[in-house]
Amino acid sequence: MQVTKRILVAPLNWGLGHATRCIPIIKALLQHNYEVYLASDGVALSLLQKEFPELPAFELSSYKIKYAEKGKNFKLKMLWDSPKVLKAMAKEKKQVKKLVKAHQIAAIISDNRLGVYHKKIPCVFITHQLNVLSGNTTWFSSKMHQGIIKKFRECWVPDVEGKPNLTGKLGHLKKTTLNIRYLGPLSRFEKREVPPIYDLMILLSGPEPQRTLLEEKLLQELEQYQGKVLFVKGKIEGAQRRETRRLPNATVDVVNFMQSKELEEAISTSTLIVSRSGYTTVMDLAKLEKKAFFIPTPGQYEQVYLAKRLEKQGLVPYAIQDNFVIADLERVHHFKGLTQFDTTLDYSSLFSAFSRVNENSEPTSSSLST
């Protein structure tokens, strides 16, 4: 009797984006008769446990990174926290080694968890950042990241390979020996035509304290807004909580978090979305073909780059967090909004990465290289 392969899926706990973009991959694995084990920490693990309560789940060591309260201090804070990251990577390597042995894990999918790797089984790394933007240290941070990716059998990039694409220089290299496979944009959502309910939806996520700082600013700005608003805080907690706030000219329905189906419905029935310019959010809104306004996380070069790029393309406007006022939303009328790419992902071919070559071999260049 053929033994079902067990795949460990481990997204980074950095907001919700890494976990949510793993959802369609987890569903596809289950449809292809793989057993899926989950591993992460914090809100990322909580979200996946709520989406897949029947799947075994394990907690990994936290990277314990917090954003600086001021964007200009972001890089300094990252450097300060780097020993924590290295220590967490060492711990999760040991944890993964134990999980592989104890549960006969056949392969690993790591979404940006740098230490989730095992040299004796096929390991795949998911990232949209082949280049890691860090200001005047971009070359160094990118080479460091690519060096880690090189250990993995394949690198899956959730974007299209050619132009136009969503990631730009983040997800595309001029020359590389990395084993890259472009998946097309990944989203847990499906577009459908539904009548609008909300004039505005605010969708928050991301590490603290910046998530809370933006929440407080937007609630204050909504005092000047006119219309019906849905405010999703992006706080994954034990139970969902809702409240309705009556403002001078607006009604604001506030909810701490939503799971995938409910969130898909909420976005679909909202005319305009205000959110961070995190890449998973960009993919989700493109899938649903929504009009949006982005407020990138202060100091996070990747989000600032994506926001600037999408504004330059005439798709979505953005504002710096400290400068945002509610009147900025009027600019949306001059932008096209996001649209989805017509791509088809062959999961049977994709999952062949788990069995195609000798399991004890190191990854090498193949026909998948780009």
Which structural traits does this protein have?
single chain, 370 residues, alpha/beta, Rossmann fold, 2 domains, seven-stranded parallel sheet, 9 helices
Summarize the topology:
Blueprint: E1 6-11, H1 17-31, E2 35-40, H2 42-51, E3 57-59, H3 74-103, E4 107-111, E5 123-126, H4 138-149, E6 154-157, E7 180-182, E8 198-203, H5 210-221, E9 227-232, E10 242-246, E11 250-255, H6 260-268, E12 270-275, H7 279-287, E13 291-294, H8 301-312, H9 347-350
Parallel strand pairs: 1-2, 1-4, 2-3, 4-5, 5-6, 6-7, 8-9, 8-12, 9-11, 12-13
Antiparallel strand pairs: 10-11
Helix pairs in contact: 1-2
Care to give the gist of this entry?
The protein has helices at 17-31, 42-51, 74-103, 138-149, 210-221, 260-268, 279-287, 301-312, 347-350; strands at residues 6-11, 35-40, 57-59, 107-111, 123-126, 154-157, 180-182, 198-203, 227-232, 242-246, 250-255, 270-275, 291-294. The chain is an alpha/beta fold.
Give a verbal description of the structure.
31% of the residues lie in helices and 17% in strands. It has 370 residues and is α/β, with parallel strands linked by helices. The chain folds into two domains: 195 residues, Glycogen Phosphorylase B (Rossmann fold, 3-Layer(aba) Sandwich), CATH 3.40.50.2000; 137 residues, Rossmann fold (3-Layer(aba) Sandwich). α1 packs parallel to α2.
